[in-house]
């Protein structure tokens, strides 16, 4: 599950996503975030992307 995102950098905490961590993929920019980071920011943290709490 989500193995293709392992090693990608979460744009919110600037930390690489590790195996076994929960990941939330932005429906607009496809940027992977840690689930906790997504929830803390209440949406995508990518600059210029505005997917905020509405599911695609
Ligand atoms: Zn993160
Ligand atoms: Zn996004």
The portion of residues assigned to helices is 10-25%
Strand order, main sheet: write it out: 1-2
Overall number of domains: 1
What gap, in angstroms, lies between the N and C termini? Answer: 20 Å
Roughly what fraction of the amino acids lie in strands?
5-15%
Secondary-structure element order, N to C: EEH
Instruction: Enumerate the distinct ligands.
Output: zinc ion
Average pLDDT, to the nearest integer? 88
Which consecutive residue ranges, at least 5 long each, have pLDDT under 50? Answer: none
For the record, the CATH architecture stands as: 2-Layer Sandwich
CATH class: Alpha Beta
Count every beta strand, where a strand is a DSSP E run of 2 or more residues.
2
Structural class: little secondary structure
Q: What is the count of helical runs?
A: 1
Q: Any idea what the radius of gyration is?
A: 10 Å
Shape verdict: globular
Would you write up a description of this structure?
The protein contains 1 helix and 2 strands; from the N terminus they run E-E-H. The chain is mostly loops. It has one domain: Herpes Virus-1 (2-Layer Sandwich). The model has no long low-confidence stretch (mean pLDDT 88). The site of one zinc ion (ZN) has 8 residues, from loops.
């Amino acid at each position: 599950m989500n193995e293709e995102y392992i090693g990608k950098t979460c744009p919110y905490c600037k930390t690489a996503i590790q195996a076994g961590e929960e990941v939330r993929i932005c429906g607009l920019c496809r940027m992977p975030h840690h689930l906790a980071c997504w929830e803390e920011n209440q949406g995508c943290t990518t600059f210029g992307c505005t997917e905020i709490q509405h599911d695609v």
